[in-house]
Amino acid sequence: MSTEPEPGLAPEHVGPRHTKDEPIMMTVDGQEFRVRRRLGRPAVYDFDWLSGPHDYGFTSSGPAMTRAEMEEAIRAFLRDIDPVTGYLRE
Fold first, then answer.
1. Of residues 79, 45, 82, the one with CA closest to residue 62
2. HSE-up of 44 (CA within 13 Å, CB side)?
3. Tell me: the pLDDT tens digits for 23-54?
4. How far apart, in whole angstroms, are the C-alpha atoms of residue 35 and residue 49?
5. What is the largest CA-CA distance in the chain?
6. Is 73 exposed, middle or buried (0-12, 13-18, 19+ CB in 10 A)?
7. What does residue 65 show for φ and ψ, rounded to 5 degrees?
8. In this structure, what DSSP letter does residue 72 have?
């Protein structure tokens, strides 16, 4: 088995940014999310919290995101959730 790097393969954190129009499903820290780019707004991402206690989620805007950046955005969102109410802390 060769130890030489293969062209076109890269670790996920440096891999291509998410550019497809179809949603992607992600599980982060046991929580299920659907991530979608808004039509006509390629730098806007909607994160739907599918396993949460409410029909809830968040939106992020900025440059195209890698999967690792999406995971970090989800973790930041989850850190701000009140475990009693299931909504953002005030």
1. 45
2. 6
3. 999 999 999 999 999 888 878 999 999 999 99
4. 9
5. 55
6. buried
7. -105, 145
8. H
Order the strands of the 24-28 sheet from edge to edge: 24-28, 31-38, 41-49, 56-61
Closest CA to 62 of 22, 11, 17: 17
Gap between the Cα atoms of 87 and 24, Å rounded: 23
The pair of structure tokens assigned to 70 is 């999406």
- What is the H or E stretch that residue 60 is in? strand 56-61
Is the distance from CB of 62 to CB of 72 less than 8 angstroms? no
Distance CA 16, CA 71 (A): 15
**Ramachandran region of residue 29, left (φ > 0), alpha (ψ -120 to 50) or beta?**
left
State the DSSP code for 43: E
What does pLDDT average to over the chain? 85
